[in-house]
Amino acid sequence: YGGSSTFCHFSLAMVEQCLRGEELRARHQAALLKLRRKALREKARAELAWLGHQKCCLENLQDSKGASAMASEQHKVLMELKQEQAEIQHLQNIYRAAHQERKLLLKQQREILMMRHSTAQLQKKLHNLTG
């Protein structure tokens, strides 16, 4: 019985370590997606500013075709930004769901190990009473 108890404590410690690791991975993943979202916004802002400047220059030169092309490019940049943001949101949802599922599995494993430990202790008490 003692060996089983030691194994149970070891297993519980491993499950707890896995849970801490899972929490850390989830925080890292969230931080990475946040950085990706920020970089994407900054890139789009810079592209839009450049295209806006070019559009103004073309309007000053009375080049309506060029200005129209720049407006079209600005629209394209905005659509790409929205698409990338939707992809990031989708990834966040997937990662969040997978994290919750792994966390739940680890918690269930911990509960199973705790029940095994309790059962082993009860068996030990019963053995001591009968033996």
TrEMBL record:
One BP annotation, GO: microtubule anchoring
GO CC entries: centrosome
Signal peptide: none
GO molecular function: microtubule binding
Record's protein name: Centrosome-associated protein 350
Species in which this protein is naturally found: Antrostomus carolinensis
